[in-house]
Amino acid sequence: MSYALPADIRGAVLWTIRGYYKLKQRYEEILDASPAPPDGQPGARSTRSPVDDKAVRLSELSTKIHAIERGWDGIVGLPETCIPEEYRAGVWAKIQTGSPYPKDAALNTYKTWKQRYIWNVAVLLHWL
Predict the structure, then answer these.
(1) At residue 22, does pLDDT exceed 80?
(2) Residue 2 covered by a domain
(3) Which of 35, 80, 94, 98 is the most buried (most CB within 10 A)?
């Protein structure tokens, strides 16, 4: 099975993964936020309630956060997509900061697991 992705999807997934901490921060901010008071203008009502807007935004963020977190565990029915524990920290550091891979395994081994992790996240986001 090939885990190669089109360049546009691969780039979008990488930037989504890199934004993981910001996604989690936004999620918490939305949870803690209260709706803005009405502005008093007649006819300025939205067709959706603030609760609906909040639910939609939380759902979108939650989908991305869970895909990034579950990407390590692979895809159900494809055990070869599960990323071994010993490579996760190196792959994560490479994606987040661009730091070099640890020297405990071959460079190609880390590249293979990074590619599979990115593919897993793309599948979980339904971008494939």
Answers:
(1) yes
(2) no
(3) 94
What does each C-alpha distance from 40 to 2, 36, 50, 92 come to in angstroms? 57, 12, 16, 48
Print burial letters for 1-22: b (CB count within 10 Å at least 16), e (below 16): eebebeeeebeebbebbeebee
Judge whether 79 lies within some domain. yes
| Helix (H) and strand (E) counts in the chain | 5, 0
pLDDT per position as a tens digit, 88-104: 999 999 999 999 999 99
Domain that holds residue 86: 7-35+46-124
The full length of the chain comes to: 128
What is the Cα–Cα distance from 8 to 19, expressed in whole angstroms? Answer: 17
The kind and range of the H/E element at 116 are helix 107-124
Alpha helices in 44-106 (DSSP H): 50-70, 85-97
